Amino acid sequence: MAGALEGIRVLEFSEIIAAPLAGMMLADMGAEVIKVEPPWGESWRLNLQFVPLESRGFIAVNRGKRSLPLDLTKPEARAIAHQLARDVDVVLVNYRPDVPVRLGIDYETLSAINPRLVYGEATAFGKRGPHAERPGYDIIAQAVSGLMTNDQKFVDGVPSLYQATPFVDFFTGSTLASGVIAALLAREHTGQGQKVETSLLVNALALQGLRSIWIEAIDAERQADFVSDVRRMREQRRPIGEAVDRYNAFQGRRAGNQRYYYRTYATADGAIAVGCLSQPLRQRLLQVLGIEGDGSLPNTGPTDADQGRMAEAAKVIAEKTTAEWVAAFDAAKVPAGPLQFAEELWEDPQVMANDMAVEVEHALIGKVRMASSFTRMSETQADLRVASPPLGEHVSEILGELGYSVSHIEALRRGGVTV
Fold it and tell me: Which end of the chain, N or C, is less surrounded by CB atoms within 10 Å?
């Protein structure tokens, strides 16, 4: 079946996760995506290779694309990129802001070639400001945005990763894809292309929900006092743990505190997570566990009663198996789920029933099973069959489509322009 974006052509200059994920999402919806990377392979290919130039990380975010390695420091490679840009709908980029300019693939250059172009760009910190030119990765965005200080995990005395899975990268890629689709829709009305920008930093801020909101009537004075205290601690070279303690006091919480109704518990044979964010749900949770209480919460934050309920719940839940608790919570309509490992899900009946896994064919390594596209469409769901491309798999095909002869392509290979 043809996808919703059939006929849309995408030229992707990218590496690692954010823009590659955006490109894969567009490919999953039926777009044709040409991935341009250096002739030696982008860095994510080279990270923990299990065969030469192939890694799990690369395969995970490059499904359904065609591979065109180009050394964009060479004029011949830039000429190919500019020729492709004339006839594509979308360009995706995620380099430092200075790199596209240096390589001749910046918005100003490519939009002059193709005014209808939708140019999607993801950077670490945004295109303007004192840190615009700094490189950045998920871990740096977690640190700079405050995500790390929201957690209570410490390694060698400093806050550690909030989450090892690079979820800021993934959220940024999803944001970039949605922005590009919106710009394509706008182009249908105006005929004009445009640039779509996002960054790791803004997505890391947005992910924090309650913490990313400032309310003048509540926060103006108290946040100013907190920030002043933290800056003074830095000037005095105090340990970071003291600043985190001050933050916990500012937030009105205890370090390591969890709510009895929103946490994981050990069972007799594993663990289970419960999440009850309304009073009726909390009341049903307590009823199932045989603990007194109506599920109401004080306005002052966690209390000793919360801690007591958590200890009592832990004791009760440890007495039965995960399956027994899942059945009991399901019967009472209490939101809960068993703790599992990702590797268990490939044969999970829920995953299979909803087509959340897809099996695709990789040209070098054979069958690959992976998470399917993020959305499902009743009328235009694209058929996912192709895994990520081996490096240079489509060089002859793509350059042939541009009118390059076999001898010319071989000359470009000998010159190091491509592989």
Answer: N
Tell me the fold of 9-205+389-414: Rossmann fold (3.40.50)
CATH (residue range 262-343) = 3.30.1540.10
Q: What is the DSSP string of 195-231?
A: EEEEEHHHHHHHTTGGGG---HHHHHHHHHHHHHHHH
Query: How far is the CA of 242 from the CAs of 226, 230, 358, 383, in angstroms?
Result: 12, 9, 48, 54
Block residue for tokens 């977690």: 142
Q: Tokens in use for 164?
A: 């090892």
pLDDT tens per residue across span 350-384: 999 999 999 999 999 999 999 999 999 999 999 88
Q: What is the pLDDT of residues 210-249, one digit of tens each?
A: 888 899 999 999 999 999 999 999 999 999 889 988 988 8
> CA torsion angle for 247, 253, 259, 264 (degrees, to 10)?
40
Contact status, residue 62 vs residue 23, Cβ threshold 8 Å: yes
Q: How far apart are CA 117 and CA 194, in angstroms?
A: 7
pTM of the model: 0.93
Domain ranges of the chain: 9-205+389-414, 214-251, 262-343
